[in-house]
Amino acid sequence: MSNPSKNDRYQRQISLKELGEIGQQKLKDAKVLVIGAGGLGCPALLYLAGAGVGRIGIVDFDLVTLNNLHRQVLFSVHDIGLSKALRAGDVLEQINSDIEIIVFNEKLSTLNALEIIKGFDIILDGTDNFASRYLINDACVILKKTLVYGAISRFEGQIAVFNHLSETKIAVNYRDLFPLAPADGEVLNCEEAGVIGVLPGIIGTMMANETIKLITGIGNALINRLLTYNSLNNHFFEMELIAMPETVKMIPEDAVAFKEFNYDWFCSVHSAFELSQQEFEEIRNDKNIRFVDVRESGETPKVEDFEHINIPFSRLQQQIPDIDAKTIVLFCQSGKRSAGAAEILSKHFGKSRKIYSLKDGIAGWQKSK
Amino acid sequence: MQVHLTLFGQLADITGKTEMILHDIPDTETLIKTLNEMYPPLANAKYAIALNKKVIKGNTILSGDNNIAFLPPFSGG
Asked: Counting beta carbons within 10 angstroms of the beta carbon of residue A191, is it exposed (0 to 12), middle (13 to 18) or buried (19 or more)?
């Protein structure tokens, strides 16, 4: 395609004096990865492709379903049952064949994330679960990539630019804001809580806008700031984020440690079921809770400060005991075996019980008293 | 000290309110404790706290204008 027709394609944005030919060239040279071709990813992809971002990557492993169509605007009824990543790639190709589109029709994991993300400058997180969000954040920190974050809950959305050096050389990441994942069931996803299609449309479009601003250097991107939008009352709330010194310890330090980090576990058992000493202290006399010592018989110190039963971990691994209480708190010496026991019991009981493990165990609790 | 509190997302669902005015709150730890007593499910919720539109960590003494916001993480996409 000749240059005049290309200019014609982008004429309406090149004529913005803030953007111009130089800005258009920056867009052409940019490499942007969109993870999740869903409610947020679809509008973001549409506008990034339209704007002429030179290389766009799409990561998604899911298939199009009928209940996606009210918000995932790249797809039609003819796409039901087909790969979202492949279909999104086809649609973008039709919108703009001058750009390079790379499709990753696979689930992002610690094994492929660094390889995929490495080839791009700016990463958009449009995923729908915490495990992916922490995984993407950590990968971006390790590879020093800018992360454009968007997330929604019912009628509200959040947008931020993470891991991008500000003028004062500070780069805040997602863990500075939310160090630990919420407990299982504490935050509902779109499937459970519902969502109106327009909201991810707005937030995903804002993510594309932040990306275009970052690439072309126009305006003020949401670097180290979080913007919350409420679609019911049209309120915007913006706040300044700060980097925390302890965050660096939570993020795998290199590619090897990253590949070994279990994000599913971190976002379920670990956070869902761990009880701090203080939380434990507040509930230990609650008669509705069943406290279970999973240490082997004869292990010391003996616990006499609160009512509990003994089910050694070795026995629990072989046979799941019938515990009728709705809330179960497991403890051992250091918190390790009880975390394992919590995992076993939660798999068995599903959401019918709330299962917790005492962090740092009885040793930690006695020290804190 | 008077506090003007704004609650987002599931925190507003727990309390049934998006805005609240609280009195006699000397610091953020007292604010959290007071709210946890009023709305026990809040005690298990995770959220970031902003004082006058800037994130704070740890207990913070309140003085003057205290516009506080509690922001929970969202996962939806």
From this structure: exposed
Query: What H or E segment, with its residue span, contains residue A176?
Result: helix A174-177
Strand-pair partners of A125: A35, A149
Across the interface, do B76 and A228 touch by the CB < 8 Å criterion? Answer: no
Contact: A128, B50; criterion CB under 8 Å: no
Question: Could you give all domains of chain A from N- to C-terminal order, each with its CATH number?
Answer: 3-262 (3.40.50.720), 276-368 (3.40.250.10)
Secondary structure (3-state) at A279 = helix
Quick check: helix, strand or coil at residue A260? helix
Is residue B14 within 8 Å of residue B38, measured between CB atoms? no
Question: What is the DSSP secondary structure assignment for residue A266, as one 8-state letter?
Answer: I
Average pLDDT over residues B36-40: 94
Task: Provide the chain B residues 5-34 that lie in CB contact (below 8 A) with chain A.
Answer: 6, 8-10
Nearest chain B Cα distance for residue A293, angstroms: 23
B65 min Cα distance to partner chain A (Å): 16
Across A72-76, A147-151, A341-345, B2-6, least confident range: A341-345
Q: Are the beta carbons of A123 and A216 closer than 8 angstroms?
A: no
